[in-house]
């Protein structure tokens, strides 16, 4: 038991010694991605610290990549081992809204970072903030620096990060129509489907007319056909219908028209008169939808009647 206690004590002493030793110095190479506070973009800047330390005095270089250019600054600062705070004196950093770095404007910014040491990683976390002249136009740049355990050229790290960003940007961009369809379908599926009628039709193409049923009260609907959005947020009228045609598949078991209530109008619920017409049929169906259910009509393709 004494041997076990002694071993645990040695391990604890080693861990504490490791963290205390690590907390005494920020010397070394550090890499971090900088994100402008409040910006939607990620990795606005890529940074490298090369730090040397003598006592509490810190000197070295800050290298960074921004837009399409590399920049380098000599730096001076101080490190407080008790508070683990690194302070970097004012240096010029390219303004984050610069488009052309050849014509860009530098902002004077100072940095404050806290050293965090663990067996997993050693980091400097903090931000660069602008001086009084630029503070209203240049938001802080937040950075988490990680200490590099092996020698890796800064340019190599930057090229790897750019390759990662390019691979993300190569993903297909969702079109506005596809996004609308996806979001509308998500809303549709959150309500139950109330099948009101099953109707036989004989033609491939069927005309649909949709009226406000009763008094005009600003009912608004979206119409789905076989889960595809065909009419979006249209207001029902008592005189002028919402008119469209649908193709009736004779192979598919179901050809469902679904009315989704976008609102309940002035007189709830949302009610409509749907008229379905093909060469041999004309149907009138009253539909009622609300925020819990969607009224639906199912079309079934049948053989046309035999001529006598």
Short recap of the structure:
The chain has 308 residues and is an alpha+beta fold.
Question: Which descriptor suits the 3D outline?
Answer: elongated
What share of residues are in beta strands? over 45%
Task: Please state the second-level CATH architecture of the largest domain.
Answer: Beta Barrel
What class would the helix/strand composition place it in? alpha+beta
Which superfamily, in CATH terms, is the homologous superfamily of the largest domain? Quinohemoprotein amine dehydrogenase alpha subunit, domain 2
Q: Which properties best describe this structure?
A:
Immunoglobulin-like; 3 helices; single chain; 308 residues; 2 domains; 17 strands; 8-stranded antiparallel barrel; Lipocalin; elongated; alpha+beta; 5-stranded mixed sheet
Q: How would you explain this protein's 3D organization?
A:
With 308 residues, this protein is α+β, with helices and mostly antiparallel strands. Helices cover 17% and strands 48% of the residues. The strands form three sheets. Strands 1-2-3-4-5-6-7-8 form an eight-stranded antiparallel beta barrel. A five-stranded mixed beta sheet has the order 9-17-14-11-12, with helices on one face. A hairpin with a 4-residue loop joins strand 15 (270-277) and strand 16. The protein is elongated, with a radius of gyration of 34 Å.
């Amino acid at each position: 038991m004494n041997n076990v206690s002694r071993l645990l004590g040695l391990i604890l002493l080693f861990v504490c010694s490791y963290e205390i030793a690590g907390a005494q110095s920020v010397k070394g190479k550090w890499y971090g991605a900088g994100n402008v506070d409040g910006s939607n973009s990620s990795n606005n800047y890529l940074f490298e610290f090369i730090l040397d330390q003598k006592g509490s005095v810190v000197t070295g270089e800050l290298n960074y990549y921004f837009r399409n250019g590399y920049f380098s600054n000599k730096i001076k600062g101080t490190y407080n081992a008790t508070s683990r705070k690194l302070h970097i004196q004012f240096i010029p950093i390219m303004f984050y809204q610069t488009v052309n770095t050849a014509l860009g404007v530098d902002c004077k910014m100072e940095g404050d970072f806290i050293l965090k040491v663990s067996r997993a990683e050693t980091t400097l976390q903090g931000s660069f903030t602008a001086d009084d002249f630029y503070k209203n136009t240049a938001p802080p740049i937040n950075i988490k620096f990680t200490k590099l355990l092996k020698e890796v050229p800064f340019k190599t790290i930057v090229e790897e990060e750019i390759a990662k960003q390019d691979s993300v940007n190569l993903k297909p961009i969702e079109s506005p129509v596809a996004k609308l369809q996806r979001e509308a379908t998500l809303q549709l599926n959150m309500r139950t489907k109330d099948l009101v009628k099953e109707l036989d039709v004989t033609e491939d193409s069927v005309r649909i007319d949709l009226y406000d049923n009763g008094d005009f009260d600003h009912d608004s609907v979206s119409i789905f056909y076989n889960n595809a959005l065909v009419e979006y947020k249209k207001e029902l009228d008592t005189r002028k219908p919402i008119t469209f045609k649908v193709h009736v598949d004779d192979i598919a078991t179901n050809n469902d028209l679904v009315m989704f209530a976008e609102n309940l109008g002035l007189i709830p619920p949302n009610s409509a008169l749907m008229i379905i017409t093909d060469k041999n049929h004309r149907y009138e169906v009253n539909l009622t939808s609300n925020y819990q259910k969607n009224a639906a009509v199912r079309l079934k393709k049948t053989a046309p009647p035999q001529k006598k």
